[in-house]
Amino acid sequence: MRMRARLIYNPTSGHETMLRNVGDILNILERAGYEASAFQTTAEEFSAAKEARRAAKDGFDLIVAAGGDGTINEVVNGIAPLKHRPKMGVIPAGTTNDYARALKIPRDDVLAAAKVILKGQTVKMDIGQANDKYFMNIAGGGFLTELTYDVPSDFKSVLGYLAYVVKGAEMLPRIKPIDMHIQFDDGEYDGKASMFLLGLTNSIGGFEQIAPDASLDDGNFALIVVKSSNPVEIIKLMGMVLNGGRHVNDPNIIYTKTRKVVAKAKHGQQMKINLDGEYGGDAPITFVNLRQHIEMFANVDEIPNRALSAPEDLDEKENDHVEDRDLQ
Questions:
Q1: Which structural domain range is residue 67 located in?
Q2: Which domain CATH number covers 7?
Q3: Is there a catalytic annotation at residue 278?
Q4: Are residues 215 and 278 in the same domain?
Q5: pLDDT band (50, 70, 90) for residue 284
Q6: What is the count of structural domains for the chain?
């Protein structure tokens, strides 16, 4: 039987760029050897996730998520709980497109992004699990991670990732630390912090040096805890991020690799959790790295060698806790 591909696209992404190019993208998928069809997301909650899950259970070989990081996250959440997961393709049409940046997929031409699938190069990507939800790029908690909730969508559409920079600068004087308990593989942190971040790639909010040595497939998160809440010190740290990722050696930073993290807020404080730029519930929360969980099409020959681990066979038991679950 011929392989089948399902394009799941957000019609409002990229000033309706996707709407104008669906036919051409389906033709590209046909050239790649797939019988291709499309699904346009709706206003229904979890629309993309439900369709991805349906297509996966129906035996589709490839699901292509087209839209912003939010659409990609939904598709990941649709198939990540399943034992049998199709390959994924990504066509970016959003604001920062962090995930496409990490996979070296063109971010300003949806047809060029679709043609990456013609190259036939894939990476088995790590996926993060946060209690019963999943994320593909970043998770975090603390005051600074909340700025993504406060940036109006129109503002993001016009300014792109600069909108986050502007909003972050506006929020700096109001930063308040949270009493956190962060437990990770090699230790724990118990004290005040302005935020913690877990990175699965090196691209976070348009910056490529926040987690400078993040690997896409080694089974580890890059954990960053920012202990300081002083605006001057945070601006200094951001400058170090832009200057080659030197922030990881600063005494105000904890930076380590870990497969599992348990994050709690102390003394009755609330700590909202950010999953791929969206609100993902409140702490306490347990994060687990699902190693090489979803095979993604990517420009592998453009990804630095340091971002990919050495090939090795995975133990079948490594992800055996994954099982089919209904979407909430």
A1: 3-120
A2: 3.40.50.10330
A3: yes
A4: yes
A5: very high
A6: 2
pLDDT of residue 10: 93
Which of 182, 103, 90 is closest to 139 using CA atoms? 182
Q: Percent of the chain having pLDDT more than 70?
A: 77
Identify whether residues 181 and 62 lie together within a single domain.
Answer: no
Confidence of residue 166 (pLDDT cuts 50, 70, 90): very low
Q: Has residue 328 been placed in a domain?
A: no
Full DSSP string of 122-144: EEEEEEEEETTEEESSEEEEEGG
Catalytically annotated residue among 170, 278, 302, 316: 278
Calculate ∠ Cα 84-32-117, nearest 5°.
70
Average pLDDT of the residues of the chain: 85
Same-domain pairing of 199 and 234? yes
Q: Helix axis angle, 17-31 relative to 110-119, nearest 10°?
A: 20
The answer on 152 and 82 residing in a single domain is no
Split at pLDDT 50, 70, 90, the class of 161 is very low
What whole-number distance in Å separates Cα of residue 117 and Cα of residue 314? 25
